[in-house]
Structures are given as structure tokens and as C-alpha cells.
Specification:
about 270 residues; alpha/beta; Rossmann fold; 2 domains; seven-stranded parallel sheet; globular
Amino acid sequence: MNVKGKIVVVTGAADGIGRALAQGAHARGAKAVVCADRNEAGANEVAKAIGGTAFACDVGKDTDVRRVIDATESRIGPIDLFCSNAGIGGHRSEPGNAASVSNEDWQHAWEVNVMSHIFAARALLPLMIARGGGYLLNTVSAAGLLNQIGSAVYATTKHAAVGFAENIAISHRDQGIRVSILCPQAVDTTLLRAAGKGAQHVDGVLTADQCADSAFEGIEAQRFCILPHPMVAGYVKKKTDDYDRWIGGMAKFQRSLRGDNGGKAGS
């Protein structure tokens, strides 16, 4: 899909990748860009700069996502591309127990990182199918293909997001629905900066604009898995070629991050 002349909605548009996606859609000639974010002031700022429309939206709430979709469809026109971009990080596990994060934090991450995509698809699929097709871009993470040392919550919810996107792509391909997952590693965003010194970026940190450029290139090519860091494809191959060896290598990498050279686990 070429976004020129299209109606595009972006969640998490107040900052980071979402802001870059909204600005990128405008720069590429989108007919209209809708900026949705829990940070209403930030969404308004981005929308004002590009001549778009802003909505306050907590993507973890079905009613909020549906309200944005309904308002866009009724006031602006049929949505061609929905960028389900908003996500949440953090929720780091205690070193001695990967499952230690509270039920409340697990639930919150599930709502934002997984259910937000489901809410959008549930509302949009009947509309898009009725008019012959449409496009969903779901921002996931390389963690959804690989994993995330230190945060079982992030890794698990992002894996679930990949599985849902795959199912939509399979189930509705013949009805004109196209889906892409955007799976970057480190991108210079508020979420990354909040990770502090513990965040390791062995393959480099991209700007949000570079990530958005990759997204639009992938959408134009109708590529399901968009990798702003191309080396991730090689890591995924190593993982699936020999899962046990990959897990051992990841455990070794974890020890190196901790400075624990005396660990007993096999590598």
C-alpha cells in the first residue's frame, strides 16, 4: 500500500515511533492523519503540526479504541491504514524469579500490548472487509520474535501480539486484508531511555524516523514482518535452527549483562 491519498490512524502518536509514523504518513501525502494517544496534549501538538486530527485514547480500553475508529469513519472517512502502535515496556522481573511481576502489571501490559491490537481488529475488520480490504500495521518489537532479557512480561505480550497478527493475516488474506508487524530492536524513544543503563544496544539505536521509514517501505511492499534492524532475521534463523543452542547463548548473554562470569548454566 502506498499511503498517498489514504486515511491513516496512528495510536501512540504523541511521541516516539508513533509521532514519526504520523509525520511520515503526512509527508508521504496521506489524505488525512488521525493522531490518537493517552497524552491528549501531545497528540494535539502532532496533529496541529501536520494538519491532522487528534483524539484522546487509552488503547487498553476497547471503548476508547472503538470511539476513535467510529469517529474517524463518520467524520473523516474510511480508514485505509490503522497503525496500532501504542505499547508499554518496563515491568522488569526480579533477578531471582522471572514470573515475579504482579498480576496487575501483567494484566496492564496484556491490555496495552495485546488487547489493543484485538480491539482495533474487532472494530475494523468488518468495515474493511465490506469495502474490499484494508491494512493493519501492528508495532510489536524484535522481542516478539526473539525475547527480552529481564522482562518476561514484555517478551510474553509481544510474542502474543505476533501470534495474533499472523492469525489475522492468514484468516483474512483472501478478503483483502493485509497485516504488517513492525519489529525493531533499540529505537531512541522515551520507552528506551526509561530503561536506563541496563539497556544494551549491540546492533545500534535507530531514530524514530528511521524506524518509520522502514515501516512505510514494508507497507508499500506488503511485507508481513518489517525489520528495521535487518540482522534480526539472522537471529531468528539461529533460534529456529537450534532452539537449545539459542537458549544457551541467550543465557550466556544474560550472564555477561550481569557481570556474572561464574555462572554454571551451559552456553
